Amino acid sequence: MTPIVEINGLSKAYVISHQPKAGYGSLRDDIVNILRRPLQPHITQGASRETVWALDDVSCDVQQGEIFGVIGGNGAGKSTLLKILSRITYPTKGHAILRGRVGSLLEVGTGFHPELTGRENIFLNGAILGIRKQEITRRFDEIVAFSEIERFLDTPVKFYSSGMYVRLAFAVAAHLEPDVLIVDEVLSVGDARFQKKSLGKMGDAATSGTTVLLVSHNMASIESLCTRAMFLEHGQLVEIGPTTKIIEKYLSIASTAASQNLAERTDRQGDGRLRFTSAGLRSGERGQYSDVAQCGQDLEFVAAFTSDSGLKHVNASMAVYTAAGQCLMVLDSEMAGISLGSAPRHGRFSCRIERLPLAPGQYFLNLFCTANGEIVDWVQNAVTFHVEAGDFFGTGKLPSSSHGGLLVPQEWSCDDDDSSGARPSDVTSG
Asked: Strand locations in 40-162, DSSP E?
């Protein structure tokens, strides 16, 4: 059978210029350099250039009607691959063949004109996909109902929130029945109910013959939807195979990465004005560091860092993820209403919580920091830690991993409800 998507030796290179950190050349120096090299592009003295391969010789085939997952850490090349397949950018080497109409859902707002209304953008997106106006009109009511933005349909989309953008964009992409639907992590912007509805729609689309390429850090979604998956690492193809096998390999490598020296990790995002150097758990009167904690234990999540001088308006965040990639808990200074002020050259962020509410199991800690709203460092799977059974409820009974990811204080009662005509024991089936 001829595959609907053929990817053959795709490679994408970007050239990055590194300017000197301090000092500026004079106007005289610039003029002299231009006169000496009139036919060459002018490069500031001391500047260097680096070639970065976002993708390096990636090949695979995807069959019609398949939901194909693409997984990997930050900087693995996932989004670059989807942009090439969507014809947003072109490869440096290799080629890709997509047979049929392609619908893409990448960054929030891609393919929308901010000055046009939601109604006008539906027709604009349809035209970009090569769909006739009559067909768009026929599916129009379904698109609007799915997106849930009826009240704002005639409002320019520049006033939409990111969630409204995503709802409308996904509704258009999914309901105009493309042969290939390309979806990046952008669905995570929507709320949980819309994410569930969108994942169900992708499953329905695949049963009707649409091919779906899905990028996500949520391994539970990838495992439930995809029959096969591709694992990318540093732009290179690690393996293609059954979803469960690929996820196991990805998590194994992620766990190994989390045990590496955090200061030396290169798979991170941000402008580098602050860099996390180590992280761990601290508990007990002596404040000892450990990678093991107990359910119900009071402890601190601690992340050490180095930063540039004068870094102000800092916000730190730590997120706890399961081994399957599901986010269970986000600890965020700004969300908690705490101002951290400026960051010292060498310091640490510390977040103390009472009665650790995690069930026994293995977890990953993601580290994130912004300054003046700009990302300075973001490391996924920065460290791994284990939670052992503890007496969270004070009953002498220890919870296990089968109790789910989170433990919460509970109060139970069994009352005689005289106000209703039927009690639970009075209700029979049939």
From this structure: 48-62, 67-71, 93-98, 102-105
